[in-house]
Every structure is written in C-alpha cells, then in structure tokens.
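Backbone-to-sequence.
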C-alpha cells in the first residue's frame, strides 16, 4: 500500500474512528501486509493465535458451550504503549447477529458537562489487565490521561476502558473514582453515541483505539462467527499525548 493512501486512511481513522472496507477477497497474508503498512504488528499475550498465523488473534464462537462475553473496552490499554489500531477480517459471518458496536469518544468528550471536564482535566486513569493469564514479565497496569489528544487530528477524546479495567483515577478516593468511571462509561456508551456494524462476508473493519470503544454483541447469534484480528503499534517514536 502506498504511503499517501496509508496517510489518508490514518487521517480518516483519526477523524471518524472506524473504517469499513467491504468485499475484500484477501487471505491472512494479505491482511497482515495491509496492517504492516500502518506500523508494527503487536499481539496480546494470553490471546488465542490463528493456527499457522501467530501474528493474528482468533476470535470465534465455534465449539463454545455458551456465548463469549463482551463489554465496551479499548484493546490492551494496561500497557504503557497500547496498540493504536485494531482490525477484524470476517472469515465466517453468522446467519444472524454477531454485530460489533463502536462509540465515538471525541463526541463523548465534547458532550461532557463543562464542570466535569474541568474537574478531570490533567488526571489519569490506571488501566489494569483482567481475564488473561500473563507471565510475570508482562505489563499488567499503566496510567493514561483521561483526556487524550489525538496526534494526527489534534482532537481530544475521552480515553477509558471497561469499568473493571479502570482501577483508579489520580487524585481521587477509590469510591469517587469508581463513581466517576461508571459515569464516564455510561456517558460514552449511550445509544446515540454508538455505531452498530452488521457484518457481511469479506468485510474488513479497522478502528483507532485512541478515539473509540468497541464490543461484540453475542446475543442471539445464529451460526458460526469467525474473525481474525490484528493490532498495530504506533508507527511514530512517541505515543499519544495528554490534552494540553
């Protein structure tokens, strides 16, 4: 993929959060080439790799006795430098259901009451790992600003993850931090701030983890749902910066 095309897609992702590329007749090798044009591939320790393709993560309901669980979150935010992009390639689409939902965290920031923005400006949230079996040498907690300025658009997003993955807010008691995170999560995931993507065969969907939350809707799924997931690290030497 040419550099101008990649740059253009980065700008679209920075502004819109999500891009949908329909009718892609590609295999895992081509999918990885596409992802690598944005930056280095990263893989979350403890996740299930795609057989024969260890750089990609297998997301599937096949062979499960009960549906997977999912809540809105951002990927791997418990490390100091989380992946900036995630993409899913639809390998098998169920007959019904299995949609993926995305929030607009720029809008979530913009629609916060002024008093809340003022109270949270300059604070950080401690993000922690949950639900994975990691080795002792793996990162399991990191602090990130509540308000994240996107390095490519200059816009500010409300940056958080699922409440159970947000352990503390700087300068707050545990009780107040818990209440604050619950409020921010409800505010971010309200119905008018969510895009629901209904998958079609051949879809590739990519999103910017710095300005969206996402979750899979596993309720009422009929048929097999198989996705191959890839994640991309920041191609720049630095990472996203706190709002100035």
């Amino acid at each position: 993929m040419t550099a101008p095309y990649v740059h253009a897609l980065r700008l679209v992702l920075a502004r819109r959060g999500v891009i949908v590329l329909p009718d892609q007749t590609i295999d895992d090798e081509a999918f990885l080439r596409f992802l690598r044009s944005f930056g280095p591939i990263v893989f979350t320790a403890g996740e299930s790799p795609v057989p024969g393709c260890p750089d990609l993560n297998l997301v599937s309901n096949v062979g499960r006795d009960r549906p997977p669980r999912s809540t809105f979150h951002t990927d791997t935010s418990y490390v100091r430098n989380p992946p900036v992009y995630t993409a899913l390639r639809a390998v098998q689409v169920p007959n019904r259901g299995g949609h993926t939902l995305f929030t607009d965290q720029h809008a979530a920031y913009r629609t916060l009451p002024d008093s809340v923005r003022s109270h949270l400006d300059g604070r950080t949230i401690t993000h922690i790992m949950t639900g994975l079996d990691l080795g002792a040498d793996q990162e399991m907690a990191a602090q990130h600003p509540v308000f994240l300025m996107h390095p490519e658009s200059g816009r500010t997003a409300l940056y958080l993850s699922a409440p159970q993955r947000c352990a503390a807010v700087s300068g707050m008691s545990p009780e107040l931090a818990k209440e604050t995170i619950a409020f921010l999560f409800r505010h971010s995931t309200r119905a008018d701030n969510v895009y629901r993507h209904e998958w079609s065969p051949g879809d590739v969907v990519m999103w910017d983890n710095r300005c969206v939350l996402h979750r899979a809707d596993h309720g009422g799924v009929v048929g097999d749902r198989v996705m191959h997931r890839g994640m991309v690290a920041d191609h720049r030497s630095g990472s996203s910066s706190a709002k100035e």
